[in-house]
Amino acid sequence: MIRIVEDFKDVDTYLYLRDKVGWVKLDKSQASLALNNCQKIFTVFDDDKPIGMGRVVSDLAVISYIQDLIIVPEYQGKHIGSMLINKLIEYVESVRLPNTKMMLCLMCAKGREEFYKKHGFIERPTSDLGPGMIQYLV
């Protein structure tokens, strides 16, 4: 049975999920800080098997980021990602101050643009917004 668990901050689970999708390897101290310093974590399980995770990083007032939306490959295409992103968006809506706007941003993996568009995200650049930018510190 598929279930979503809130604020499950298990480093080994996080590292396992990242490895399953081929993301950059983190050491345990990085992973621990990442989990402990985000506002919200939702972990998806199939019975007791972890199959996905999404995190929200936010100032809780002006901007929030969806970070690490992970669904292991064998569960992709089964609407679990949609269930998870809807849970993340619902959480951000719940912390948004009344009568205010909050930006909800994310960095999309190449080839996943259509998935995020289905959930109300827009691609940048637009006529009003410049491109997203990134810098890796190594």
Largest sheet: 5 strands, mixed
Instruction: Provide the CATH topology.
Output: Aminopeptidase
What are the segments in which pLDDT stays under 50 over at least 5 consecutive residues? none
Strand order of the largest sheet: 1-2-3-4-5
Tell me the number of structural domains.
Answer: 1
CATH class: Alpha Beta
Q: What's the total number of strands?
A: 5
Tell me the fraction of residues in β-strands, as a range.
25-35%
**Global structural class:** alpha+beta
Secondary-structure element order, N to C: EHHEEEHEH
Span of the ends, CA to CA:
41 Å
Radius of gyration: 15 Å
Number of discrete helical segments:
4
User: Which superfamily, in CATH terms, is the homologous superfamily?
Assistant: Gcn5-related N-acetyltransferase (GNAT)
Provide an overview of this structure.
With 138 residues, this protein is α+β, with helices and mostly antiparallel strands. It has a single domain, classed as Gcn5-related N-acetyltransferase (GNAT) (Aminopeptidase), CATH 3.40.630.30. 29% of the residues lie in helices and 25% in strands. It has 4 helices and 5 strands, in the order βααβββαβα. The chain has helices at residues 11-20, 28-36, 80-95, 113-117; strands at 2-6, 40-46, 49-58, 63-71, 103-106. Strands 1-2-3-4-5 form a 5-stranded mixed beta sheet, sandwiched between helices. A hairpin with a 4-residue loop joins β3 (49-58) and β4. The longest helix has 16 residues, at 80-95. The termini are far apart. 20% of the residues are buried. The model has no long low-confidence stretch (mean pLDDT 96).
